[in-house]
Amino acid sequence: MPTIRVNRGDLFNLVGRKLERSQLEDILFMLKSELEEWGEELEISVDDSERPDLWSAEGLARAIRLYLGIQRGAPTYEVRSSSYEVINEKPRARPYIIASVVKDVNLGEKGLEQLIQLQEKIMLSYGRNRKRIAIGTSRADLIRFPITYTEVDPDAYSFVPLYEEEEMTLREVLERTDKGRDYAFLLEGYDKFPVLLDAEERVVTFPPILNSNDLGRITPETRDIFIDVTGNHLPSMITALNVVVTALAERGGKIYEVKIDGVSYPDLHPREINVDPDYVRRLGGYEGDLKDPLERAGYTVLSENPLRLLYPAYRGDIRHPRDVLEDLLSSVNYNNLQPLIPEVYTRGRLRDETLLEDAVRDLLVGVSAEEVQTFTLTDPKLFQDFGLNVTVTISNPVSRTFSAFRSSLLPHLLRVLSKNTTLPYPQRVFEIGEVIDGSWEKRIGYLEAGRDVSYTTARQVLEFLARKLEKEVDFREANHPLFVEGRVAEVLVEGKPVGYVGEVSPTVLEYFDIPMPVAGFEVKLSSFLR
Question: Same CATH fold, 352-528 and 79-265?
Fold first, then answer.
């Protein structure tokens, strides 16, 4: 979760009043934030990854004003018409771009620090380390519009990167600057790079890497700022742009539209959501007035029954009535809610299956086995190479490695043993995990590797386990693709087949490059329920 630093005097100036430390701590708690450090500089941990509007002094001050009732309802911002335009030629690496211009901003040193911090926090966290979102800020007064967002040969254009002194090509920026080296991976595989060029074909921004030092170096005295947001996920980009421009508006900035593909950005009209008031009262246990706390949470109440609400455009996290409920309860202060004792007394207990899992776990740890947890998704080839079927596969997997649901625990346990061949023997591992082999079930898988390990070794452990769980087990002759023929048996509980026990085939051991004999079993967990 983001941790931000703000100047205390700057924050209180934006709020419009000074606060005691305890007051600030209480308000931040209701905003899912925590004051980590108190002094001239405040360090605040914001424990909400979906609220980038709180990741700056401007956004925090706005939320505090609302909470204190200094300001009520959904904050509104005027977007002024303009002739600013960006021509989007849709570079393959980052096909989307949106933008705005904010004029007459009173930045100063503190405002500049907050702008830089807000950009970085959004790109790192909300923007998935610039993969989903990259934000550029440039001197609007120096740019000649229209701007063209295009892709170019990385050696065709040169510019002076931000805070550098000499011109570099786009390729050289990746090789010679810190930001270039840090984020070059985002452009791997592309023979052309995205770039913003103004009407004089000067480089404004090289997204998602660096701004131009000539056109993109913002100073405390900068008044007119061009903000561009590029990326691959338009809804997140819209939220990011709205957060940045409204933060600048809190410092006196005037927001101007930029036209892209016939659409004007930003759209700061408040969004609407409808909520059943009975739903809010039932789930929240709150019976008081709804309008006042909702207005202090930043909503404009259009009607109370049903609840028709407007919320600000920078709140990209409002998707469901539960989000409204959470804001309402924060506004009334959770500590002011009266807990209700249930009329019906019930006593909670662990499920029988959970108790059985714990018992199995304790018993196998007692024979010096180590519990492991492996992925339920798997590479089907790992199973098919031994004649084991996988019955559930993923339609559009990211990779073959996680493209099917495992049908057995043993191949994964064998892979664990194969990664530990340099450690002392004997080695004992087990897993209690889910498989799908025709149907979903939980199984117990156990393997032991060592010089003297055999079928008898694994059977003795299984019989010990069954005896302690007060279950009778029987065995009958069988075959299994992982075990040696003649050294494998089907396990029966109450006459029903529940799994296999045996000595692992040398062919399988060679496949996994395990130098020692291995034996084990795999059985249904539910078969040991009393």
Answer: no
- Separation of alpha carbons 24 and 278, rounded Å: 32
274-314 pLDDT, tens digit each: 999 998 888 888 888 899 999 999 999 999 888 999 999 99
Cis peptide before 306 (omega within 30 of 0): yes
- E strand residue ranges, 96-171: 96-103, 133-139, 147-152, 158-159, 168-169
Neighbours of 451 (CB within 10 A): 9
Chosen CATH of 79-265 out of 3.50.40.10, 3.40.50.720, 3.40.50.10310, 1.10.1060.10: 3.50.40.10
Taking the model in full, what pTM does it have? 0.71
- The CATH number of 3-68, from 3.30.420.40, 3.30.56.10, 3.30.450.20, 1.10.10.350, is 3.30.56.10
> Considering only CA atoms, which of 136, 149, 312 is closest in space to residue 210?
136
Quick one: which H or E segment has residue 81? none
Half-sphere exposure of 392 (CA within 13 A, CB side): 14
